[in-house]
Write a structure and sequence with these properties.
Elements lengths: L6 H11 L2 H7 L7 H11 L2 E2 L14 E3 L2 E3 L3 E3 L5 H4 L3 H12 L4 E2 L7 H6 L6 E4 L5 H13 L4 E5 L9 H6 L9 H7 L3 H8 L19 H11 L6 H11 L3 E6 L2 H10 L3 E4 L13 H12 L4 E5 L5 H9 L4 E4 L1 H10 L1 H21 L13 E2 L10
Parallel strand pairs: 4-11, 5-6, 6-7, 7-8, 8-9, 9-10, 10-11
Antiparallel strand pairs: 1-12, 2-3
Cofactor: FMN
Keywords: Flavoprotein, FMN, Oxidoreductase
InterPro entries: Aldolase_TIM, Alpha-hydoxy_acid_DH_FMN, FMN-dep_DH, FMN_HAD, FMN_hydac_DH_AS
Length: 387
């Protein structure tokens, strides 16, 4: 068993153990990948204030997210194709999150269905919705999430039009992977992954196949998804979905102050400051650079979560100190899942928890709720002086 000390250790194992197309799916952004890169590197520009001679006993990083107690303010973000990183991946990740005491979010584009995850877990999870043109499908999947006891609906707002991700097109990304010669040769080098996939029946999009009209196999699914993301998603449709859902609503993909204010006025229980992990609008600012202005605009009016770029407990601390109420991690736990299955997700959470606790202590704080700008050194030009 390799010694895992950081998220990068899991990333290296993930790259070795998972077929190239699925590692590339996780480790890519749109177009030039500028925003994808800066989501990570902009965290490095923020420095920490070391404080000494402070009693560091009885520390806690526990908190709440949308009213639910959590072991630390970190939720697992929705990630498509998760069940292709490791067999039954969504079930494994949800179990790890439940045992650790943090929320798990299931993607619409998951391999394991809502019902699959509910049957294999006991804690309520969050469900992420992509809005499709087929309103009947949208209504039914909302009803399925309610029936499964999902505790929040995470409505993604930034995917009406799909940003081009060059690697996915070149790899011919699909679930299950097409049996081309390059794919077969690559999968032959990943025997553990292949054995896992042979041992499960879950190899395509479980929330869609058999639930959407006319989608019964992979060929029809490919054409359906290409046509179905709704480019007409607007606040009127968001209101219709809110009313259909009737529970806690999180609006994900907010990267602009005006949109944040609109979401707060709309009554969202939380917003997620996110650029979809740099996978949509390449050239947009990183989530962490946009966070301070959004905090100034809506802090206290709605809960503010930050997503995109978090690779450590230090990143979590920086986001919280800048005013976020919580965070979401995607790639950080996917690396663990692809590396070591459920145990890898647990290891990713353990790494982030330990880094968060240690960093908080060295910054002179005992309670995560006391973090603030006083714990940071932020460059004066961090947010940018834009015309």
């Amino acid at each position: 068993m390799p010694v895992i000390t950081c998220i990068d250790d899991l990333k290296r194992l993930h790259a070795r153990r998972t077929p190239r197309m699925f590692f590339d799916y996780a480790e890519s952004g749109s177009y030039t990948e500028q925003t994808f890169r800066e989501n990570v590197t902009d965290f490095e520009k923020i420095r920490l204030r070391q404080k000494v001679a402070v009693d560091m006993s009885n520390r806690t990083v526990a908190g709440t997210m949308i009213g639910t107690p959590v072991a630390m303010p970190v939720a697992l973000a929705p990630v498509g194709f998760t069940g292709m990183q490791s067999a039954d991946g969504e079930i494994k990740a949800a179990r790890a999150a439940e045992k650790f005491g943090v929320p798990f979010t299931l993607s619409t584009m998951s391999i394991c269905s809502i019902e699959d995850v509910a049957a294999h877990t006991s804690a309520p999870f969050w469900f992420q919705l992509y809005v499709m043109r087929d309103e009947d499908f949208v209504d039914r999947i909302i009803d399925r999430a309610k029936a499964a006891g999902c505790s929040a609906l995470v409505l993604t707002l930034d995917l009406q039009i799909l940003g081009q991700r060059h690697k996915d097109l070149k790899n011919g990304l699909s679930a299950p992977p097409k049996l081309t010669l390059p794919n077969i040769l690559n999968m032959m080098t990943k025997p553990e992954w292949c054995m896992g996939m042979l041992g499960t029946k879950r190899r395509t999009f479980g929330n869609i196949v058999g639930h959407a009209k006319g989608v019964g196999d992979l060929s029809s699914l490919s054409s359906w998804t290409a046509e179905q993301f709704d480019p007409q998603l607007d606040w009127g449709k968001v209101a219709r979905i809110r009313d259909r859902w009737g529970g806690k609503l999180i609006l994900k993909g907010v990267l602009d102050v005006e949109d944040a204010q609109r979401a707060a006025d709309f009554g969202a229980d939380a917003i997620v400051v996110s650029n979809h992990g740099g996978r949509q609008l390449d050239g947009a600012l990183s989530s962490i650079r946009m966070l301070p202005s959004i905090v100034r605009a809506v802090k206290g009016k709605t809960e503010i979560l930050l997503d995109s770029g978090i690779r450590s407990g230090q990143d979590v601390l920086k986001a919280l100190a800048l005013g976020a109420d919580g965070t979401m991690i995607g790639r950080s736990y996917i690396y663990g899942l692809g590396a070591m299955g459920e145990a890898g997700v647990t290891k990713a959470l353990e790494v982030i928890h330990k880094e968060l606790d240690t960093t908080m202590a060295l910054c002179g704080e005992r309670d995560i709720r006391n973090l603030g700008p006083h714990n940071l050194l932020v460059p004066k030009d961090f947010e940018g002086d834009w015309a």
